[in-house]
Amino acid sequence: MIKKLSLLILLISLGLLFSSCHLASKKPQNQVTILLDWVPNTNHTGIFIAQYLGYFKDEGLFVKIEQPPQESSTALVAAGKVEFAVAFQDFLASALISENPLPIKTVAAIAQHNTSGIICKKSSNISSPYDLQFKNYSTFDNPLETAILKHCVEHYSGNFNNVNLVPAKIDNIGAALRTNIDAAFGYFGIEQIILNHFNIDSNFLFFKDIDPNLDCYTPILISNTDYINKNPDIVKKVLRALSKGYTFAAHNPQESANILVKCVPELNYDITIKSQKYMSLQYINDAPKWGIIDETRWNNYFDWLYQNNIIDKPIKHGTSFTNAFLEN
Question: Are the C-beta atoms of 123 and 151 separated by less than 8 Å?
Fold first, then answer.
């Protein structure tokens, strides 16, 4: 999952980083990089809004929004190459329990609930994980993905050995569902919205509805623990600006989608609008404000991973995230 640091540095030097809207050429004193986890999408809207509407500038910050080499944002933060990155609670576990745990900590929840799940071809008549038996499931063969899928099938009294795991050959879920594939992993606010837009009949099984223990935080914002300790005021300023950006997006989905497309013109406008209307309901949802992480739910997920032998050691409570830099 984590690429070698030397390769990451090489890729960065070759210019595989993505900048958002036009930035001033003169660097202010407080320069910060926020690394995305993937191509720009509505998970990132609040970041682009904070840039576009000047919320970072109001805090005296010079912020670059960059796109990383694939699956490398956590490693870059741990190596101190960037200050902040978008990540996912479920994929942090391995980094936190390694022989040399990565020095990373989550400082905010970008969305309040897990919007990922299983996308199913409607004609395959999959109404629960039990129905995945004797069906073709497209998998990237990630151990965590496989373990969660196995749990879901067995949670509904199915036999996981009866699920036909097919190595993913097509990244586009819409195209995959037009083949012999019956189901695949995806996010409702992205893949499912795209399928709906193109009138591809499908249904969605949320992991959080299958088992509340699977309601982890996706996505999140992480930083380097040493950077946090040395720059608490900068962390607060970044989160204050992001809170304004995501709160704006939560209350203004149409305008927020317009801003995102202005910053990232290659995005499909109609899909972005539909995705934004969904994601705007997820940023704050039932939390008192943007960014807050519920300690019990956070710990429950990591405890569940350990209790189900998905990770081989527990993650100590109170060590992997903090709400301390969010304004009261």
Answer: no
